[in-house]
Design brief:
The protein is an all-alpha fold and about 70 residues long. About 80% of the residues lie in helices and about 0% in strands.
Length: about 70
């Protein structure tokens, strides 16, 4: 059995609440990875802009956090 099918079966056995908890956990982990990769010394606004850019793309980040 391929890994994708095993994972799909595992998620299918989860309750909706468990699937949401897994998704939130994955998002939190990804955000921590992104934050750890940012340069030290950014002010809070620029830090938020760069996080937004990583998740949603440059065009969106530039609209939300114009320079």
């Amino acid at each position: 059995m391929m890994f994708e099918q095993i994972l799909k079966d595992l998620y299918a056995r989860c309750t909706p609440c468990e699937r949401v908890a897994i998704a939130f956990s994955m998002f939190d982990t990804e955000r921590a990875i992104v934050e750890a990769s940012l340069p030290i010394g950014l002010d809070q606004r620029e830090r938020h802009r760069q996080i937004c850019e990583r998740f949603y793309g440059k065009d969106f980040a530039d609209k939300v956090y114009p320079r």
